[in-house]
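re: ur question from the group chat, yeah i did fold both. here u go
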Amino acid sequence: MWHFLWLIPLGLIIGAYGTLIGAGGGFVLMPVLLLLYPGEKPEILTSISLAVVFFNALSGSWAYAKMKRVDYKSGLLFSAATVPGAILGSFSTALISRQLFNIIFGLLMIAVSAFLLLSPKRKKETNGDIISYYFTRNLTDANGSSHTFSYNPIIGVVSSLFVGYISSLLGIGGGIIHVPVLVYLLNFPEHIATATSHFTLAVMALTGTIVHVSTGVFSRGVRRTIFLAIGVIFGAQFGARLSSRIHGRWIIRGLAIALGFVGIRIIILAL
């Protein structure tokens, strides 16, 4: 069991970076697991990743909550939408071959990376942009900064359902998709998006993990999960604090560059 000790510093890095960008760290962890365990079935690796994402998101959400950056009303709405998608995605993983899994995973990483790098700057709304059926949110964080924004709840729910499915299917946590959706489609400020996404990921990842536990898949990944979880819990606290010192635009760019590199690497290995 002690030969898994090296997973603690790996979890520390994943927790810090995953929380910094609001992605839960699964998009970093899954490529590592795919490289380390080439003969392992996808459902086993996704069960490990989702469980680690849960601990990362739980720890990060606690840190963001103290900063008053989590939009709880929106987060609860999005979390409820991710649950059915997460359940379906967890069951679907076992139906995909390892090679096809790698190709799907890599293509998704590249697509999201391209979107983040090529998309225009987020439009700042004015009072005239707020439509009656939109949700309008007013938040003031611990630093005294006020944030007012509005979004279409239908788009939020539908996108969260999709995020729940893809996240559990690939074991990536979902923040790599959810954060861009919150920022570019739902008009969330970057730091509020990362914090609220983290809150949503905790619920989604817990749902997917419960499914894997119930099917018996997770039993083969318990020890690896324990050591990774120890690292991400502490790393998430560091990542949340670091986010206050980094401009939101650089958070998005850092996410895009990392995704592109990961996607290309995974596809090359699959072919």
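okk and heres the other one u asked abt
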Amino acid sequence: MWLGIDIGTGSSRALLVDERGGVRAGFTAPHEEMYMQRPLWAEQRPENWWDAAVAAIRGVLARAGVEGSEIRGIGLSGQMHGLVILDEAGAVIRPSLIWCDQRSQAQVDFVNAKVGRENVLRYTANPVLTGFTLPKLLWVRDNEPRNFERVRKMLLPKDYVRFRLTGEFASEVSDASGTAVFDVVNRRWSFEMMDALSLDRSILPSCHESSEITGRISQQVATLTGLAAGTPVVGGGGDQAASAVGNGIVEPGIVSCTLGTSGVVFAHMEKVAYDPAGRVHTFCHAVRDRWHVMGVTQGAGLSLQWFRNQLAPSVEYDALTAEAAQSPTGAQGLFWLPYLMGERTPHLDATARGGWIGLTNSHTRADLIRALIEGVSYSQRDCLDIIESLGVAVNSVRASGGGAQSPFWRQLLADIFAKRVVTLETQEGSAYGAALLALAGTGEYASVPEVCRAAVRETDSVSPRAADSAFYQKAHRVYQALYPALQPVFGQIAAL
């Protein structure tokens, strides 16, 4: 059997699969809540990820009733962009600034001024954004110089867990692509970026293809987890690339929409292409010598989670979507802007703020929820439109993540996208993709596409309803007009 481990935002999940990609068992260990000491700040303790990963590994082995010696390979996945900095002894220096932390706009501005926007694109194929790893590192340099002086290694979240599993400082191309110090075209670290910013190259880990073996389980970890010492650990993938592998988005023509805390529209590319405006990200795929393009909504599932936590704490998510279904198409003219953590695609604006627009005395809670789900879906439609404009063919969209578990939300996506939306037999996302990468990396299959063809199967689909889809095409244009109208105010709000 093969093991996939995903270090998410809210939890770590371990998943066991057999040689055909069939899921044998899974186990999830929760994380501590992210720390948000100020607006737009978001931190987590890497040590907590490790504790959760150990609990998930032990839990899945026990649940499946298997010995660690039966595991032939391990793949890793995890939340992207997080900054983990280690000292000379390999100890964590400070909590990780994670993917949704938006405090580093001053550092983004510094990089653009120092390196030049055109050079940043030339070196990395992407603009530098507040969510990426590099400006977080520079924020530490600017605001916590004593911590910065102690930095000897910079790792991404899943790669910190790899270090604890194997003792190796290693990463892989898909996750490294989101650091802003990686040459996406040539699939290597961008020493040009590091040198231009006077950063020490030696803090970077080694970088590999996603299905390459990067290390092996240590004896100490074997004792702690029940795994066998020497078990190979492959590169794995950033959560979005790994999720795409789990969804079979490894060949042209199929696009995925993953509705987790963030929302991601993801497409495979045979050759590098990128949006000159930087509205979507072009990264290395977890498939050797292939790339992908993705658009990101920062506050997708986060929007519904926020609503539930703050306004309906005792209500289950299924009950919320059932309530939303009682509201008419378009939620009686109510719109939701999902900018709870700023926004990436298409605005690249850390100061953007969320909210309902069009609220009247006649609106009900059902309208509030439906508008929220529609607003997230409009934002995902923005991502899809840009990806299609790059020449990516979209025959269907494979939906996954927590939001896609809702039949109501899947149908709404089909209507807003005006595309067929497909569900898959296995809905395990990133952990599943990590396990499939382990299958390929240990030689059970010759390539990642080969294992996906064997393991990934469609089970259901919904098609857009003509009347609702026509309405949503008009409503989407209204949604698109709201950000430009409000954008001048967002900076003023942020300054208060």
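fwiw on the second one: The two ends are 55 Å apart (CA to CA). Residues 415 and 464 are 4 Å apart (CA to CA). idk if thats what u expected
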